Structure formats: structure tokens, C-alpha cells
Amino acid sequence: MKGYNFAYLDEQTKRMIRRALLKAVAIPGHQVPFGSREMPLPYGWGTGGIQVTASVLGRSDVLKVIDQGADDTTNAVSIRRFFARTAGVRTTTHTSEATVIQTRHRIPETTLRDDQIIVYQVPQPEPLFRLEPSRIETRRMHALADYGLMHVKLYEDVARFGQISISYDYPVLVNQRYLMSPSPIPAFDNPKMHLMPALQLFGAGREKRIYAIPPWTEVRSLDFEDHPFRPIRAPHPCGLCGATDSYLDEVVIDDKGGRLFVCSDTDHCAERRAAGHVGSEGLREAAE
Amino acid sequence: MSASIDLPGFADPVTEAQATFRAVLDAMARPGTIHRAGQHLAAPAPLDGATAAVLLTLVDHETPLWLDAEAAPARDWLAFHCGAVLVPEPDTACFAVALSLPDLARFSAGSHEAPEVSATVVLQVPALASGTRYRLSGPGLREPEELSVTGLPPWFITQWQQNRTLFPRGLDVILCAGTMLAALPRSVSIEEG
After folding, report:
1. The dihedral of CA A272, A275, A278, A281: what is its sign?
2. pLDDT per residue over A38-63, tens digit each?
3. Which one from A203, A241, A242, A279 is the annotated catalytic residue?
4. Is B28 within 8 Å of A22 when comparing Cβ atoms?
5. Cys staple from B186: which of A31, A68, B51, B170, with CB 3.0 to 4.6 Å?
6. How confident is the model at residue B2, as a pLDDT?
7. Comparing C-alpha atoms, which of B193, B15, B61 is closest to residue A12?
8. CATH 3.40.50.11310 fits B10-192, yes or no
């Protein structure tokens, strides 16, 4: 593309982000500040993830972008087009073909490999921000590994609701040291972060933070011995492919209370259907 | 002025810096694994291709650079191609280049609140994949990994153990030899093995 550097960012910015990424990998789960740039889309649309991807991406990479698991939603389509235009890289919707996967709020159902990198878009990198508004205080709490406040919050959940009432952005402890926000992925996806073979990078553009989890690193969702962590999933099979082990979206299909549960990971669902799996909706269509 | 300043930097800065960064990122994410860098670079003496490529990729005017006495002949080349600000004292440096193991305690290890504000030591050794065997374990490694390095003194293990106890503070080391590199992030434990 004329008028822009490869992958949009200038080389000076990439160097600054690359240095932050290396320190982030060396200190798993620690938030490294970086000089987040203004991007040609607003904060909240994945500017942190885009800057990380732009700094990592090479000409031979194959990029996949998902938004809530889907390859075909506005955010995913526009970011994929952005890199196809500014970097000329090949893009894909297939998880297994991609070398770099940028994601908003999901981890693909297909197990990632050690030659892949997953980049998370992060709106709020500070896991303690609802409990302690001061950044100066939370920095000190991370320095001292003082996470009692979060345990109290989880305990109060148990006392009031009988269970821990966090369904997404469920806090994790990385490498037994840093409390980390997994970004607003569903708690269902948390176990996938634990000992993941792929490198996990996180970018928060508005909050100007980068953090990372190296491959094969312990990532534990906080819990109690008598209230163990439970990944939550709607108790239905996927209406299109019949999967009983994938994360589901609930879709309203009419004004009479009709509901359909479908895989949130569109690539996973399409691959299963291509392999001949059929859900209840598919059977009904076939019967009509 | 040394003659090395006449040597070019990357022929294709964007592509080569990206390839070198991915090698370093992968090396840092999987401690002890060996990666290639600087194959097409005419490195200024006494730097090897990998060492010079890592510095071109990561160092600029924002990162104070310290050179040990043996690396000093490359100072003009680094000042010109990286725009690096050379500092005389190691404790203010973001990056350090050394041809023999320096005293790691002389570099900044960051603070408890900002452990990322620590030095990265680019240590050029005579050879990787041969020599003394070290056993690495820690984040990034599914099971302990072996790395062989030629040219580290026996007191390296003690130095590293001291660095390891500082965690999350501490230094990160990038080992370079010829066109090979491996990384030792502060999170890794090293034993002679």
C-alpha cells in the first residue's frame, strides 16, 4: 500500500512495542506500559490488539481475526481488511491455517499449536479496577502480590449468591505470581489458557498496557477448595452442528420467545457441519 | 573513527527487523531454543551477525546503550545505524552489549512496581549448541530444555541464581553466536546439566 509503512505503524513505534512485548514475555502476567498510538479506528475497537499484531506480523504470516468467536462480524472483517490492505498478508477464517490470530473476547475451540500466536484485544487490563480505582494502589498491590481484595470479592459472591458470580473476565493467577485479566473472554475459555502451546499476547490501546503469557505456563482461575472454579456453558447442543462441548451464543429468532443456541466459534461450527454433523435446526430444515 | 561505520545496516530494514524480532520473541517465549538472525548482515567487528541484527531491531535513541570494552570498536556503527545513546555506566543502560560475561549486579533490575524497567544484556559468546550443557526450566518450557553454550565462566550459574531470586525484578539475557541466538528471560531457572 502506498503512503504507509508495512503494517501501518512506523518502525520507531514497532520497536517500542516490540521492546514492551519482550519484557512482557519475560514477566508473565505483568502489565507493561507502552506508548499507545492513535489508530485509524476508535479506542474500544481493538486498537491495542491491532498495534500488537502490527508489530508482530511479517509478510509470510497468515492472519485470522475473530470477534466473539465470529469471523464475519464488523470488527473482525474490518481489522482483517485493514491488515490485508496495509500489510498485504494472507488472511483466513480457518483456525488451523492461521499463524497469528487476533481475537476479541474468545479463544477458538480448536486447540492452538506452538507455531501460532494469539493476540487478545483488551478493554481493561487491570483485574483489580472495580475493587480499587487508584492505579498507584493497584501497582503497589501487584508489586506486593497482595491479592486479598480479589479473594474477598470472590468470597462475598459465595456468601451472597452461593457461587462465584463472574461469567466473563474471570481473574487468573499467572505463573503463581501475577493476578491478570484474561480480557472479557467467557470463564468457559479460561482453562484453554492453562499450559497453552501457543504464545498469548494482550494489548490494551486506551489503557496503554501490554502483557503476555509464554507457552506452557500455569494459568489458574482463582477459586476456593470448597468452591472450585467451574467453566459455565449453556446446557444445550449447538442448533446447527449439534456440538455439546463448544461455547454457545443464544440467538432470539422470532417474537414468540423462540431461541436458538449456536456455536460462538463460527469456524468450528462450519467445519463440523462440513464434516457431516447436524444439529436440531438442520434436521428441521431437512424435514421441511 | 573506526572503519566499521562504512558497513551498511539491514538491506531491507522493515522485513529484516521483523524477522529478527520474531526470532527473539520466540527465543524469549521458549527459553533455550536456538533461532537464526542476521544471516544477510555485514556485521561490524567484533560483533557477529546475530548480535548486530538484534541491536538494529531493538535499540534506538530511546534506549541508552552500554558497551563493554571488547564491544567498543562497534560503537560508531551502532551510534550511526541505531541512533543509540551510549552511556558510560551500566546501571543507566536499557541494553548492554558484552563479549564476556559482565557482573550482572551492575545493571538495572527494575523496581518491584515496574520490573520491566530493567536492562536486557546482549551477550555474544563463541558458540551456541556446543560447549557446557545447561538445563533450563520455567515458563515457556513444557519440560526442562537443554542449552549448550561455549564461553560462559563457571560463576555464571551463581550470577544467574542471584538474578532469579530478584523475580519479578531482574535482567533478561539474549545470547548470540554467529547467526544463532537464544534467550534467557529472568523467569527461567538454570542448572548445570
Report:
1. positive
2. 999 999 899 999 999 999 999 999 99
3. A241
4. yes
5. B170
6. 56
7. B61
8. yes
